Amino acid sequence: MTGSEKMLARKADGIGWMTFNNPERHNAVSMEMWQAAERILADFKADDAVRVIVVNGAGGKAFVSGADISKFESERSGEAAVAAYQAQTAKVYDALAESPKPTIAMIQGHCIGGGTALAVCCDMRICGETASFGVPAAKLGLGYPLAGIRRLVDLVGPSFAKEIFFTAKKWTSEEARIMGLVNRVVPNDKLEDFVLDYAKTIAGNAPLTVGSVKFIVGEALKDRGAANEAACDAMVKACFASEDYNEGRKAFLEKRPPQFKGR
């Protein structure tokens, strides 16, 4: 399905796992890998059995360490090549940010450059205690597009966003937590179990409710008057009109776990 041995995908228990599998380069990402990531996310979106998406990196030493600099000459050396590369990464970032399904970045080790940008596109970021973060664009002379900066500003605010970019320094997991860059910091050896438990919890909840909240939060971030209030109202009404709403109330009264179907 992936079309690249450096991108792995699997599905289990309502969770779609997308793994960047280039550990010898700290999961640095090439064009081929970005293209495979787009295919994986499209497959997860189309599969009703997948209710939550988890993104992680192989090897335990890095989530994603950014673009594969060894590929710069072949993939990002001219104006047209740079534009093509940016267009492809934007497709993946947008697919994550706009996914109707909840997304979690499970972060071990280095999360640098494009890795931080990728993590910011997810709904939640959960990291190990030795994780580190940074955007070294200012050390490489790279420009950074509006969409990526806007997502970071929405997450940590303008002052921290400027500090991250201006200094181009690495930040510890605790510094990232203080800035609001990550939701949770857990011991390294507990990270996978913690994320798995979180993902299973979300997957077991009502998909229509979870999906509506994701959409409505996105609309709430827009300027007043710009939000699609009609779409938000329609999604709320769909929840109350659903079989899952009846199942949720029935399960509560019967004191049993609900079995939601997303309809």
UniProtKB/TrEMBL annotation:
Keywords attached to this entry: Lyase
Keyword Lyase annotated: yes
Protein's UniProt name: Enoyl-CoA hydratase
Superkingdom of this protein's organism: Bacteria
A Pfam family: ECH_1
Keyword Hydrolase in record: no
Transmembrane segments: none
GO terms under biological process: fatty acid beta-oxidation
Similarity-based family: Belongs to the enoyl-CoA hydratase/isomerase family.
Protein EC: 4.2.1.17
Enzyme superclass (EC): lyase
GO molecular function terms attached to this record: enoyl-CoA hydratase activity
